[in-house]
Design a protein that fits this description.
globular; 521 residues; binds nicotinamide-adenine-dinucleotide; single chain; alpha/beta
Amino acid sequence: MTKCCTVTLPTEMRDVKIQNYINGEWATPSSGAYLKNYNPATGMEIAPIPDSKSADIDYAVHAAKSAFPMWSNMPGVERAAILNCIADLIDQNCDILATLESQDQGKTVASAAAIDIPKCAAYFRQFANYVTEGIRETESSMKLVCTTSSINKLVPSSQRATTQHVASGVAALITPWNFPLLMVCEKLAPCIAVGNTCVIKPTELTSVTSYLLTHILQAAAVPKGVVNIVFGSGVNAGEPLVKHRDVRLISFTGGSVTGSKVGALAGGLFKRVSLELGGKCPSLVFSDCDLEYAITTHVRGAYQNQGEVCLSASRQYVQRDIYEKFLDGFRQQVRQEVHVGDPANPATFYGPVVTKQHMEKVTSYIRLAQEEGATVEFLVNPNDPVTNVSTDGRLTIEGLEGGYFIAPTLITNVSQGSRVMQEEIFGPVVCVLPFDTEEEAVQLANDTQYGLGASVWTEDPEKLERVMRQINAGSVWGNNWLAWDDCMPFGGMGCSGTSREHGPWSLEFYTETKALYTHTV
Ligand code: NAD
């Protein structure tokens, strides 16, 4: 049984150089080169990131492959004890992790401490629990455990047919920047719980908390080679990882364009692949909804985490007879409650967007909407320390002049076919359009290449059920947005992805399923 220790994490990253973590040791990149990294609230440089290449990936995959026989054969209860230890260390260091996540990503410390970091710990506990529960339950619930069997009643009684879920081998886990540590842990916990080993390639834009995780992994006595983390760009490190012949399985979360490349590469090499991609999520607000609650939730849905949420309610359709009332309430609430500024201030609703390049991408959509003749409003809170609002929505915040801040932006009078309505902006920008009938609402919601999430707002239970069932999206909320259950399937349709993860669906994905037929006479 693992005895869980404590760990001392750096509390400040300015002078830290991030290092790869391979075979239980920290290593500089083989190229010796580093990528620059910035605190988005200040624009100041923090912890440089290894610019890893194929040689580093080779080394990491080799370590993972060597550790696989030992780890996959370790009794599940022992693996679970290590996972629980990781969870305890994450919880113990919640404040440090949340603070540094905020300095690296721009999200508020309060949201990282309340959502991101506790959820990371919860994933390790959830999958530790699945493994230990499953071991006690051997002959049942085949979905839940990699070592269990189920009996197929159609096979003649002289034969026993069982399914076996076995660990796949070396997994590649590739993650984005909007929930940096959360996305890593969401994949890592099920991946290693069932006995795989892995190489993680976190996004080069927000690598800090993954680096802190390496200290936690070592303190939790995760055996050498089971978890390797290689930092660097998608092209130099991500692609060699996807292509590596010893990688059997790939879990990728990121944009749809990158996902398409990763899917094509992985498919051609017969690798198991899960793609969790972008979204442009609609919400349908009918005139018979609880308007006050709907407005509050839509403000959150539009601007939470700077709008950098794949499930962000970025296309809001409101029935025409309440359209103006909805917009008035929305504007008023944003101006009063959405404080933009220092992400370390507990009163801040959202902070800077992740990078200067991303700020330029988001504001280019705002300029496009203006050029197309849409109505663009910047709903700046009059009490915020904003010294300038540029014509394309950039905010200058007193004391944080180098930061990448964008105003809460509302776009109306835009056409459904505009790129602003069709493409993922991934920033604090929401488009609101009216609709007349239920049929039109469903048609507008489904008029997209994406299919990740949606929400429907009406007090009529039959209409709610009817409309929810017609929307093409992996998750649909009725009179809610982002209610969450980690035992429910998560994933998208169309350009939003190809798979389902979380809970039993993760166990299914991270294992190979075998059919065993045994003649028992
Ligand atoms: P991205 O596609 O640019 O990068 C994602 C990861 O892929 C990064 O680690 C990157 O380095 C790596 N990468 C880039 N090119 C690669 C290549 N050729 N081969 C292998 N790896 C490569 O995405 P991003 O900008 O980091 O993240 C934002 C996107 O992620 C948004 O579209 C958002 O909707 C999506 N997202 C989806 C979910 C979901 O669960 N569906 C969750 C969070 C974010």
